Amino acid sequence: MDFAKKYKNYIFLFLIFFLALKVFIPQLDALKESLLALKSADPEWVILAIIVFFLGVVVLSLQYIVLAIKKLAFKLTLQVETAELFVSRILPSGVGTIALNMYYLTQKNHTVTQASAVIAANGLSNAVAYSILVLIGLISSGFTFGVSSAQNYNIDISKIALIALAIIIIAFIIYQIPKVKNKVKSFISGLVKNIETYKDKPKNLVIAVILNGLGSLTGIFAIYASAQALGVELTMAQALLTYTAGNIMASLVPTPGGLGSAEAGIFAGLTIAGLSTAEAVSVTMLYRLISYWIPLIPGYLAFWHLRKSVLSNFSLSHKSKP
After folding, report:
1. How far is the first Cα of the chain from the last one, in angstroms, to the nearest whole number?
2. 164, 152 in Cβ contact below 8 A?
3. Which residues touch 83 (CB under 8 Å, ≥6 apart)?
4. What's the average model confidence in pLDDT over 12-31?
5. 34, 77, 187, 209 — which has fewest CB within 10 A?
6. Residue 201 phi/psi, 5° resolution?
7. Phi and psi of 142, rounded to 5°?
8. What 3-state class would DSSP assign to 310?
């Protein structure tokens, strides 16, 4: 134990090096493709996409400040959410974000129950906001995703409905498994109990829904801007479809930062929207450069800085205890 305390910084550096070998180095081919896509991109659109993407970190910080049961400082919360850009790319999709924010909240005087309530409320408000965005996207597009004035690509709604029905049936079958059913019931019970914490603060939940919607829009716009940077016509409705597909795949196949799975989902979304294979690959690679590779730098710097204070005992094994 004394050895670990004395040399914890060196151990941490070794861990970073090891994770780089295991996680990042195998993905250098994807990074290379992203950089090649950047060469032909319009720098103004790329810069705009980067700025808007990072505004999402500011919005995320405000979400936690609004939902926090105990007061959180904006500057420190912003640093933590910036650090999350690194942590979420080291740990499987979603795990890093939850682990880091749970740890941060408990360090800022929240009990484990209160921290869980904040995370649950944020997740619920995100689901509501995202559902609204999807509904608006479908209505505004009329279920037709036009790529240009010269070409119109109509999505076969019957196929989408068939896929949705298949997912519902599979989910229902899985739910019949006793162990799964018990876990789902326990989750719902815990979620309801956590949300009851906000029964006297309904405005906070409404504000959180709005902020979550804005946060999702930053990612959607980054996809849209990536396409524009490469001279590919893409509507915001198509970008929403693509963003949704990327999130679904990243959730179904939880790799660090969604590597591989997110790209597959984004590529699928773009091709469904009517882009050619070459266009879909280029847009996917550029967007992932903006949303995955570039954020690693400020994310790592923020994380390393916070290791000296609020995140001093946070473990990248995501088993940190408050």
Report:
1. 19
2. no
3. 100, 299, 302, 303, 306, 311
4. 51
5. 187
6. -135, 55
7. 65, 25
8. coil
Quick one: 114 exposed, middle or buried, by C-beta within 10 A (0-12, 13-18, 19+)?
middle
Residue tagged 């484990």 (tokens)? 112
- The structure's pTM equals 0.74
Upper half-sphere CA count for residue 247 (Cβ side, 13 Å): 14
What does the DSSP 8-state code read for residue 153? E
Kindly report the number of other CB atoms within 10 A of residue 307's CB atom.
Answer: 16
> Residue 229's Cα: distance from chain center in Å?
22
Please give the radius of gyration of the chain, using alpha carbons only, rounded to the nearest integer: 21
Q: Phi and psi for 241 in degrees, rounded to 5? A: -60, -45
Least confident window among 191-200, 227-236, 286-295: 191-200
CB-based burial label for 79 (10 Å; 0-12, 13-18, 19+): buried
pLDDT for 192: 65
Given this model, what pLDDT does residue 274 score?
82
pLDDT score recorded for residue 217: 94
Q: What is the pLDDT of residue 202?
A: 80
Assess contact for 131 and 244: CB atoms under 8 A.
Answer: no
Burial letters for 229-248: b for 16+ Cβ neighbours within 10 Å, e otherwise? bbebbbbbbbbbbbbbbbbb
CB atoms within 10 A of CB 77: 22
116: which residues sit within 8 A by CB, 6+ positions away?
A: 102, 190, 194
CB 145 within 8 A of CB 273: yes
Highest mean pLDDT among 11-15, 36-40, 131-135, 248-252: 131-135
256 pairs with which residues across the strands?
92
Closest by Cα among 240, 291, 243 to 55: 291
How far apart (Å, rounded) are the C-alpha atoms in residues 182 and 176? 10
When pLDDT is cut at 50, 70 and 90, the band that residue 75 belongs to is very high
Rounded CA-CA distance 64/115 in Å is 10
